[in-house]
Amino acid sequence: MIVSALLAFMSISGIFGKNNLSKIALHIDFPQEIYAGNKFPVKVTIRNEKRFLPAFLIRLKTDIFETLFPFTDTRGETTKYVGISLPERGLYRLKGAVVNSVFPFNFFTRFRQLEGAIDVVVFPGLKHCELYALYEKDRKAKGEKTSDRIGFESDIVSIREYVHGDPLKYIHWKATAKTGKLKTKELSTLTYQPIVIDFEKVTIRDTEEKISCIAYSIVQLLKKNVPIGLKINGRLYEPDTSYAHKISMLKELALYNRNTKGDPVHRDPGGAAT
Fold it and tell me: pLDDT tens across 32-73, in order?
């Protein structure tokens, strides 16, 4: 009788455990900008597509992190953010992710392998260096000029009606007093002489230090709206200030002399990559 009870117990555990992992969809979302050695959030979303039963104690385990979803309701979603860091620049391939659960009785752990892989490009770590100071000095020496584009940096182009969110310092108080309505100054923006960084001409011996220094210079100069380009591996990125241009140059630096699909990932006991 005891044996029969145990067998029934195991059978119930198996049925509920298998059903608990069924119709579970997982989505892992990495931020677009990941810098080596810097902690960043990974968004993990679980969706329970079952109509009648919630999902309990679902654990996701990958090469670089793991996280637990205690409860997700029927036809519901649960989102968690996991903070991790990756040690080196390059292309990492996240594959072989596994979901498991000890539900319902914590006697057995059921596993399910997730199909597919996610490629993650890790940009070089940003290192402050003299190179940026040299380009900044060169930029100031070349000067700047006023553009016809609307901005917040130079001469007044026009005066318009105040729009919610306009900075208070740009309110034209004289025009406001005259009309009785809030008025905002529209200023022209400044344009800067373009800069092209030639990778081979940067006189830093250590390759990784050179890459980190160039990446830092690109990020800082673009923050100041300086058109910047990059010459590397026989390829020229023409000077620009767009976000897509920034990502393209950082990706080129991230993959420089990386022949394999990323480097091995090692995890510390806390779950962060080291």
Answer: 999 999 999 999 999 999 999 999 999 999 988 999 999 999
DSSP state letters, 77-132: EEEEEEEE--SSSEEEEEE--EEEE-TTTSS--EEEEPP-EEEEEEBPPP---HHH
* Cα 91 to Cα 255: distance, rounded to the nearest angstrom: 7
Instruction: Residue 184: name the closest of 167, 207, 200 by CA.
Output: 167
CA–CA separation, 248 vs 239, rounded Å? Answer: 12
Pairwise CA distance, residues 18 & 173, whole Å: 69
Q: Which two tokens stand for residue 250?
A: 């950082």
Q: Using 50, 70 and 90 to split pLDDT, how confident is the model at 104?
A: confident
| pLDDT at position 165 over 70 | no
pTM of structure: 0.74
The dihedral of CA 103, 109, 111, 117: what is its sign?
Answer: positive
Go through the domains of the chain in sequence order and give each one's CATH number.
Answer: 23-122 (2.60.40.10), 130-254 (no CATH)
